[in-house]
Amino acid sequence: MRSTNLFIVRGYTGADAKAVGKAAKVSIATTRVWYDDKNAKVEKTDWVTVTILNEKAVAFALANVKKGDPVYAECRIADGSYEKDGARIYTTDIIANTFDLLRPHDAD
After folding, report:
1. Which of 35, 74, 78, 106 could, after both became Cys, cross-link 98 (CB 3.0–4.6 A)?
2. Domain count, the chain
């Protein structure tokens, strides 16, 4: 059986894309909407930091992605760990395989 590690993010950037070494990082806001038991509309914004490693995608993001832009990313989730002060620190990274700007009307 073939397996898939796919995480899709579609939302709005919280800041310009930022260079981190040879990578770029982009903070993306996604908003969930639901109705509570009193039928009141509730909105919750979640923030996800996406890391872009592909050299061409990094160059594109750094040159074009600005705060408030609607974006689309197809990503994979990668777990890792490192030692700090004798303690093991565990991380979860979201790595973009595909990263693109959306036209404003595509974001709705």
Report:
1. 74
2. 1
Please identify which residue in the block is written with the tokens 């579609």.
10
The model's pTM is 0.82
Strands 41-52 and 18-20, bridge-based pairing: unpaired
CA distance linking residue 61 with residue 40, whole number of Å? 38
* Cβ burial, residue 28 (10 Å; 0-12/13-18/19+): buried
**54 occurs within a structural domain:** yes
Q: What is the pLDDT of residues 39-83, one digit of tens each?
A: 999 999 999 999 999 999 999 999 999 999 999 999 999 999 999
CATH code of the domain covering residue 53:
2.40.50.140
The answer to whether residue 41 sits within a structural domain is yes
- Please give the structure tokens belonging to residue 78: 């990668």
